[in-house]
Design goal:
Elements (H helix, E strand, L loop, with lengths): L1 H31 L10 H7 L4 E4 L2 E4 L1 H10 L2 E5 L5 E5 L11 H9 L5 E7 L8 E7 L21 H40 L14 H54 L7 H32 L8 E4 H13 L8 E5 L6 E4 L1 H17 L6 E8 L3 E8 L31 H11 L3 E6 L5 E8 L4
Parallel strand pairs: 8-10
Antiparallel strand pairs: 1-2, 3-4, 3-6, 5-6, 7-9, 10-11, 11-13, 12-13
Helix pairs in contact: 1-5, 5-6, 6-7, 7-10, 8-9, 9-10
C-alpha cells in the first residue's frame, strides 16, 4: 500500500504539471493571437467561393449582383488580373491602388495589411485574359498577423501577461489540488466514520472498493467481523457466568442447609447426642460435602467443554476394554451390587483416537444415569459394534422411559432437577456427555418413550490407519 500511495502522489504531480502546461499554452496563445469580435469566420474561404460570382465572356469581365452585394456588405473591393498581373476589371477599388503587380508585390500584399486592407488572392481560371483576382477586406473585418517570439526579451509580457500567467497557474494548482484532495479524502472520511461506528459497537461491513485503500477496507471488514465475534463471545460468556452463579447458588443452598443444620446440632453443648446419632449426622455432612465437590467439578467441566478451554489429549484407546472395565467398576459398587448389566461385543479390540479420561466420564455418566433412574429389577444392556468409520456404543434399559415432551431437553443442564441424593447426579451429567462427544467429533442420540425403556447410542470416529 505504501507504494500505491507514493505512486498516486507522483502521478498527481505529473498530472498537475501537464495540466498547468496545457492551461498556460492556451493562456499564452490568447495573449499573442488577436481576436476580433467584428471579424469574419473564414474570409479566405469566402474569397475562394467568390469565383462563381465573376463572369468572364470572351474578353469581357463582369460580376453578379450577389457579388456586388457581398462586396458592399463587407466594405471590400475587387481586382481581376490577367496572366501578366495587369488589372482587367475592378470594383470599389480605392484610389492609388496599383493596376499592375509584380510577384513580390502580390506576396507582400498577401502577407501584410496595406492601407487598412487585408488582401486575399485566388485563381480564377486558366485563361490569359482573366487568370486571378484580388479581394481586399477592411482590417477590422479580417486581419492577418505574423507572430514572432523573442524569448530573450520577455519584458513584452510585463506586467499584464505575467500576472495573467501567474493567475492561471495558481488557479490550476487550486483546482487540481481540490480534485486530488476530494479523491484522497473521501475514502479517509469513510474509513474514519467506520472506525467511529466500530467504537460505538456497530459492526456492519463497509462495501468493498477498489483503489489504493482497497486493502484498508478489507482489513476493516475483517476487524469488524472479529470484533463482532468477540462481542458475541463476550455476551455468551457473561450469560454463562451469570447462569453458573445462579445455578451453583441454587444447588449449593440445599446441601449447605443440611450441613449447617447437622453441624449446629453437633456443636450445641446443651443437646446431648449419642455416638450413633453423631455418626449418622457426620455421614450426612460428609455425603453433602462430597455432593458439593462433585457439583463444583461438574460445573467447571461443563464450562470448560462449552468454551473449548479444556485441553483434549487424544491417545489410542480400546473402547471395548474401556467399556468392560467401567461396567466392572459399577458392579463392584455397593449401591448397584444387586442390579444386572449385560455387556455384548463380538470384537476383541476396537481402537479409537480419544481422551481416555473423558470417554470414561461419558460411560460413567450414562451408566450412572441408567442405574439411578430405574428400579433394582431393571435390565441394562451395553452393546458395541463397528462401522467402516465409527465405533458405536449403545446403552439400553427396560425401565420406565422418558416422556416425549421431555426428550428434546435431555441434554439440557439441570434437566433432572437438583436432587441432592448421593446416588443422584448433579443434573449436569447428560450435558457433560453431549459436550464430550461433540468435542470428539462424534454424535449421540437418545430414543425413549414412557413405559418402553431408554436407548442411548453414541458413536466416535475410529483411529485412522
Amino acid at each position: 500500500m505504501k507504494w500505491k500511495v507514493t505512486g498516486l502522489y507522483i502521478a498527481s504531480l505529473i498530472g498537475l504539471t501537464m495540466f498547468i502546461l496545457i492551461a498556460l499554452f492556451f493562456a499564452f496563445s490568447y495573449l499573442v493571437f488577436s481576436y476580433n469580435p467584428e471579424g469574419m469566420d473564414d474570409p479566405e474561404g469566402l474569397v475562394v467561393d467568390f469565383r462563381k460570382e465573376i463572369i468572364v465572356e470572351d474578353e469581357n469581365v463582369s460580376i453578379t449582383n450577389t457579388g456586388k452585394k457581398f462586396l458592399q456588405e463587407h466594405g471590400a473591393w475587387l481586382q481581376v488580373l490577367n496572366h501578366h498581373s495587369d488589372e482587367v476589371f475592378q470594383m470599389y477599388k480605392p484610389e492609388n491602388t496599383p493596376t499592375h503587380y509584380s510577384p513580390s508585390e502580390l506576396i507582400f500584399r498577401y502577407k501584410y495589411a496595406v492601407g487598412d486592407y487585408t488582401t486575399f488572392v485566388a485563381k480564377l481560371d486558366n485563361s490569359t485574359h482573366a487568370e486571378s483576382y484580388i479581394v481586399a477586406f477592411p482590417s477590422k473585418q479580417a486581419l492577418r498577423k505574423s507572430v514572432y517570439l523573442n524569448f530573450s526579451n520577455l519584458s513584452s509580457l510585463y506586467p499584464f501577461g505575467i500576472l495573467m500567467l501567474l493567475g492561471v497557474t495558481v488557479l490550476c494548482i487550486l483546482l487540481f489540488a481540490y480534485i486530488v484532495a476530494r479523491y484522497m479524502s473521501n475514502p479517509v472520511v469513510t474509513i474514519i466514520d467506520h472506525i467511529n461506528r466500530l467504537k460505538q459497537g456497530h459492526y456492519q461491513q463497509v462495501s468493498a472498493k477498489k483503489g489504493i485503500y482497497a486493502e484498508v477496507y478489507a482489513n476493516l471488514n475483517q476487524l469488524s467481523h472479529q470484533l463482532e465475534d468477540i462481542n458475541v463471545q463476550r455476551k455468551k460468556i457473561d450469560t454463562m457466568r451469570e447462569e453458573w452463579i445462579v445455578n451453583i447458588s441454587h444447588d449449593l443452598k440445599t446441601p449447605l442447609s443440611s450441613i449447617k443444620g447437622y453441624s449446629e446440632v453437633i456443636a450445641n453443648q446443651d443437646y446431648k447426642i449419642t455416638a450413633q446419632e453423631m455418626y449418622k449426622y457426620a455421614d450426612v455432612i460428609q455425603n453433602k460435602a462430597i455432593y458439593i465437590e462433585k457439583l463444583v467439578n461438574d460445573l467447571k467441566l461443563t464450562y470448560q467443554l462449552k468454551n473449548a478451554l479444556l485441553p483434549i489429549e487424544k491417545t489410542t484407546v480400546d473402547i471395548v476394554d474401556l467399556t468392560r472395565e467401567t461396567i466392572i467398576e459399577f458392579m463392584n459398587m455397593p449401591y448397584y451390587k444387586n442390579q444386572l448389566i449385560e455387556f455384548e461385543c463380538s470384537l476383541k479390540q476396537l481402537l479409537i483416537k480419544a481422551d481416555q479420561g473423558l470417554i470414561h466420564r461419558v460411560l460413567v455418566n450414562l451408566l450412572n444415569n441408567a442405574l439411578i433412574h430405574t428400579d433394582i429389577d431393571t435390565f441394562i444392556q451395553v452393546h458395541i459394534k463397528q462401522t467402516s468409520t465409527h465405533a458405536i456404543v449403545t446403552i439400553e434399559d427396560n425401565g420406565d422411559g422418558i416422556n416425549k415432551n421431555e426428550l428434546p431437553h435431555i441434554f439440557d443442564r439441570y434437566y433432572r432437577g437438583t436432587n441432592t441424593d448421593p446416588k443422584n447426579s448433579s443434573g449436569l451429567g447428560m450435558a457433560i456427555v453431549k459436550e464430550i462427544i461433540v468435542a470428539h467429533s462424534g454424535e449421540i442420540v437418545v430414543e425413549s418413550s414412557k413405559g418402553d425403556g431408554t436407548k442411548i447410542t453414541f458413536q466416535l470416529p475410529l483411529e485412522e490407519n
